């Protein structure tokens, strides 16, 4: 009782240092800079080592990693609000992985994995069915109440689950935007794949939204940030998982659709008749419009 009373006087917004997050961020940033400044010029002596798009994607990925893992997001997620915990998982498994893969040049991917066993293992794990099933199993496991309640108070378990989530998320995105284009699906396959990935989270999201009472005992505490009850917090978490993930994935589906089909659709439109087009193709000369006699 005394400990519970003391917790009421502790501000949820108090600053908490996370040197492990700072070290991880600095390490990843330094490794990428070293790769493109030192290794890249030897591997790609004549062309650009990275593109502007890849550098922007890397900066965005680093920012998401840092902001999603550091104070105050990390502390609110682990101690007070499951909805923030859900947002953190969404950032690390949906938003960050595609940016990381876009930021990796093909030459860097080949330097790291080569052409041997490691490359074959990654290629096998990145198959859509395998990657999708494994990732969604990890997602389901990380929503089991006992797993959540134990992980938030067990640092090794907590970080292990986050590593599994990020690694499997990277494998999921390999067929969409990975550096190895041989693993990419065709446009139609990408849209079907992403649609399937948007449907699976519906199950735990619906369960959280319509659950009665506190699903996770760890978050059923007297201190209520922003005045959110434990039930409202769970419902927001379900909405973040379902709506946030679906909107993000469907935005990519729509982008792929228009990128794939709009150019061909526009190219098929012409103000010339089919016969005129065929004549032009045979002669190689542009068609001249008929002039009316004066």
Explain what this protein looks like in three dimensions.
- Helices cover 71% and strands 0% of the residues.
- It is an all-alpha fold.
- The protein has one domain.
- Helix 4 packs across helix 5 (82-103).
Going by helix content, strand content and strand pairing, the class is: mainly alpha
Shape: globular
Radius of gyration, whole Å:
25 Å
What is the rounded distance between the termini?
A: 103 Å
Unreliable residue runs? 1-6, 265-290
- Describe the main β-sheet briefly: none
Question: Could you estimate the helical fraction of the residues in percent?
Answer: over 70%
Q: What's the rounded overall pLDDT mean?
A: 84
Q: How do the SSEs run, as a string of H and E?
A: HHHHHHHHHHHHHH
Q: What is the number of independent domains? A: 1
Please provide the count of β strands.
0
Assembly status? single chain
What percentage of amino acids are in beta strands? under 5%
Q: Tell me the number of helical segments per DSSP (H or I, 4 or more residues long).
A: 14
Keywords:
about 290 residues; disordered N terminus; mainly alpha
Concise account of the structure shown:
By secondary structure, the protein is mainly alpha-helical.
Secondary-structure blueprint:
Blueprint: H1 2-7, H2 19-43, H3 52-69, H4 73-79, H5 82-103, H6 106-113, H7 117-125, H8 128-141, H9 145-151, H10 155-177, H11 187-199, H12 202-210, H13 230-267, H14 274-283
Helix pairs in contact: 2-3, 3-5, 4-5, 5-10, 5-13, 8-10, 11-13, 12-13
